[in-house]
Amino acid sequence: MFTNAYAYDQFMGRWSRLLAPCLAQFAEIPNSGGKILDAGCGVGALAFAIAEFRPLCHVVGIDTSKEYVSYAESRNNYSDRVHFEIGDVQNLAFPDAAFDNSLSMLVLNFIPNAPRALSEMKRVTKPGGQVVAAVWDYGGVMEMLRVFWDAAVAVDSTASRLDERHMPLCRAGELSELCKSAALDNIHENSHWKSR
Description:
By secondary structure, the protein is an alpha/beta fold.
């Protein structure tokens, strides 16, 4: 994982910015607004997409990285309704039912205890609210990274052990199974978004 927020944004941010509006629309956040949690906000792509897509929403983005939070704040054109703070998705510092919806984009597979993180997202979401998450399919649909890793392994077969296709939660059905284990219901999975 990148420690430099600017470097991350230059390398992967462009892909995150393409995915974020798709996830915001998939979440079916009501036009009436509400308070939304962006759990593991990184450099803010999802929070900004929600703010653009639903102008009545207030978004709180949290991330464990002080640098990423600072970077997101420095790019925040929605400061009247988007706020970023340092926080741990595994131990959310919010009361029960504090948010109308909780979303997480491209982070659950990096969290040491993803089941706990999802349970925390559920806890802070109001009854009837949505808990929505997305990760890349590193084994297939995220073509840019797939091309990179296929080339790396072709050049040096020992790179296979580092290939991101082995990451948790990154294959079809795995995120749905995690949601079921957190006792979420009405689970819908969409694995058809393409990276181009």
